[in-house]
Specification:
The chain has 311 residues and is of the alpha+beta class. 37% of the residues lie in helices and 24% in strands. The chain has eleven helices and twelve strands. It has a seven-stranded mixed sheet with strand order 3-7-8-12-11-10-9. A three-stranded antiparallel sheet has the order 4-6-5. Strands 1-2 form a two-stranded antiparallel sheet.
């Protein structure tokens, strides 16, 4: 079971304000909230800004459900790096007697998992994961590769917390670049700068920093140090509910990890293995950052910000 991260007093107060103003709707489970109309207007407004910025590069569009074949999670080694965040789909596979036993235990709010079995599905932890096998199925890519907009879809990470910016289910607006190493790195660096422009255009105090993923265990700490030393991951951070600024966007350069797993290659002479990178905007975190920066009453937000978001 994932460790619960209690919120700071500032985070707890911000969460109460968000619920009281109808931005978030309590579910009774930390990190899982409904979204009210005020919240969704802002989230969709910023999502539209990302769409407008990305359309200048004419990306392909792929939209996948929030479920992922379990085999894909296994193939990419997710359970080695992030076993503490993974969410697996289980389902009942018993007889009538077992179903009655399960129902009775559920009625008593007891553990009713005994007759549940693992299915072939997991909850998608990152929006980019299904893109790589889909692109690999096409065969070798033409020079220049491909850019894929995977949309702003729900992803899931088992990380219950009292911090309203650390959700278990959230929308990740993700764009993937696959191509030659120099093409991919250049694209990532351009979008790192572009993301700062997008966030600052709506009044957020955004800065970039070298970062690492939350790898698991002792081996994970070594991976994190290596990731930082090679500058494979950058984050854009903004103030939300402290004590430190919170990452609202990330840029990962995977080198040949996913292309080696799925056999993604480039047409041409020499080394034909493609490299990949992705950028992800955490739309809920950006929405929360905007509320924190400009207040709960959207009618009083700066006119320029309201215009940028279409409010």
């Amino acid at each position: 079971m994932a460790d619960f991260r209690p919120g700071t007093p500032d985070q707890e107060e911000f969460l109460r304000d968000l619920v009281g103003a109808g931005y978030l709707i309590e579910s009774g489970v930390p990190g899982v909230y409904g979204r009210g109309d005020a919240f969704e207007r802002v989230r969709l407004g910023f999502d539209a800004k990302v769409t407008a910025a990305s359309e200048t590069e004419s990306p392909e569009h792929m939209v996948f459900p929030p479920l992922l074949p379990r085999r894909q999670m296994e193939d990419v080694g997710y359970l080695k790096s992030f076993p503490h965040l993974a969410c697996t789909v289980f389902a009942f596979e018993g007889d009538e007697e077992q179903a009655a036993e399960q129902e009775q235990r559920a009625d008593n709010h007891e553990d009713w998992s005994g007759h549940q079995r693992m299915t072939d599905l997991v909850l998608k932890p990152a929006a980019c994961y299904p893109v790589y096998p889909a692109v690999a199925a096409r065969g070798a890519l033409a020079p220049g590769g491909v850019m894929v907009d995977a949309g702003g879809t729900y992803v899931f990470r088992h990380e219950p917390s009292g911090d309203p910016a650390r959700l278990q289910a959230f929308h990740q607006r993700e764009i993937v670049r696959i191509g030659e190493p120099e093409t991919v790195v250049g694209w990532r660096n351009r979008w790192r700068d572009r993301s700062l422009e997008l966030l600052r255009s709506v009044g957020l105090d955004a800065t970039t920093d070298v970062a690492s993923d939350p790898f698991f265990g002792r081996a994970g700490r070594l991976l994190a140090r290596s990731q930082r030393s090679q500058e494979l991951k950058f984050e854009v951070v903004v103030p939300i509910a402290g004590p430190e600024p919170t990452a609202v966007a990330s840029f990962n350069y995977h080198q040949d990890h996913f292309s080696s797993v799925y056999g993604i290659e480039m047409d041409g002479d020499g080394d034909t293995t493609a490299h990949t990178a992705c950028l992800g905007f955490g739309l809920e975190r950006i929405t929360l950052a905007l509320v924190r920066a400009h207040g709960l009453d959207q009618d009083r937000w700066p006119a320029a910000v309201r215009e940028e978001l279409g409010l």
